[in-house]
Description:
It contains 16 helices and 5 strands. It is α/β, with parallel strands linked by helices. The chain has one domain: Rossmann fold. A 5-stranded parallel beta sheet has the order 2-3-1-4-5, with helices on both faces.
Amino acid sequence: MIRSQSQTLITGVYRTGTEFIAQHLGVHPKLDVSMYRVNAPRFILNRYDPISDPTQTLAALRDLADRLLERYQIVLDQPAVLKELETDGPITYARLYNVVMSVMYLAGEKVHWAEKNQLLWREIPWFVNNMPNGKAILVLRDPRSVLISFKKYTYAPPPAYLEAVFNCLDAMASAARYETELGPDRFIWVRYEDFALRPIEETQRLWAFLGLEGGPAGGSAPGDWKDAYGRPWHANSSFQPNDSGVAFDVAASIHRWKKGLSKKEIALAEVVSGSYLERFGYEPSGIPVDWPAMLRLFMNDEKMLAHFRRWLYTGEGIQAFPTDPLKPENWRRD
Length: 334
């Protein structure tokens, strides 16, 4: 088995372009970038304590293997993972994650791995502090763009789509904090808008952060992109089908919220984001906050009201999906 030289978590709120960025990064000949598949921070972290116990190690490994087979039709080489785990050092969640990823994806020139998983920014400190050479990329996007995209994309009934603004708040607050706490060698944030407008430059900037040299100077090859299920990937847009054959409209993806959201939806996104909106370079619309109209968006939904009260009293956001991602019935395959 090839020992990984670096391990990277790519994460962000849903509908922030994390897949688009992961596709670009994965073109580097020394880096393998996967999406969603292993996702140990979500599916096994702290669920098999003590993970150093052989019985718990086996249970966690079987959990990963069963899900990989059921969801992606991937057969995990469990004996190879166990053999490597026996070589040196105590078994930890991070070491199990690293070994599984290395067994699955590293071969030939590929000696670095990265995995893109949504809504894991709160796990970034654990990841970079426990991996041998852990790094994290947090993708940010205008909360208003996230809101309009998720409103169209999600199958959860309204007003669940409004959770997007509280997730965006938490991601932005985390990005601001990690800049100082984790340092530039282990953590970096990137705006979707910058990447969409300058993909080659931003790809090279992120490769440099990962310590990678020698990537394709002309950018990536979209024709070779695949989604988590191995199917052709072109544009994971709420407003443009993946197989439409039409060039992706970057400008529309950045500005669509201006005409597509109601004033009260825009006001909610802006008032919840607060100073972080301008902190990360997003200009407020200037729309005045009509509190009664805004509250009517979710006043009959207890879950949304709980998010709003939490923000109102503490200023804090959330890291949460509208539905439980641990339940197989919520694994979206379309």
